[in-house]
Amino acid sequence: LSMRREMRRAAEAFPAIPLPRILELATLGGARALGLAHEVGSLEIGKVADLVALRAGSLEDVVRREPRVLGVWRGGKA
């Protein structure tokens, strides 16, 4: 499963959905669906720091393209 690919497919299939909403559905929406929104899915104090840094110039790049991954952190650790 590639969340980046799924975001791109969602953007193609549902062009009326704004890109920020697609990103939210892929992050916090997934955490909510799994009952984990209190732990992960958004950047907030007290939540687990799971991050992926991408080389992207815009949200359009993040959702519609495959920007290069610069780093990955899970639980705040590389």
Would you kindly provide a brief summary of this structure?
By secondary structure, the protein is an alpha+beta fold.
Describe the protein.
This protein is of the alpha+beta class. Helix content is 41%, strand content 12%. It contains three helices and two strands, in the order ααβαβ. The longest helix is centred in the middle third of the chain and has 15 residues, at 19-33.
Global structural class: alpha+beta
| Largest sheet geometry | 2 strands, antiparallel
Tell me what portion of residues adopts beta-strand conformation: 5-15%
**Shape estimate:** globular
Strand order of the largest sheet: 1-2
Count of separate DSSP helical elements: 3
Tell me the quaternary state.
Answer: single chain
Radius of gyration: 13 Å
Mean pLDDT: 94
- Detail the poorly predicted runs: none
Residue share in helix: 40-55%
Give the SSE string. Answer: HHEHE
Distance between the termini: 21 Å
Beta strands, count: 2
List the SSEs and their pairings.
Layout: H1 3-13, H2 19-33, E1 51-54, H3 59-64, E2 69-73
Antiparallel strand pairs: 1-2
Helix pairs in contact: 1-2
Features:
alpha+beta; two-stranded antiparallel ribbon; 3 helices; globular
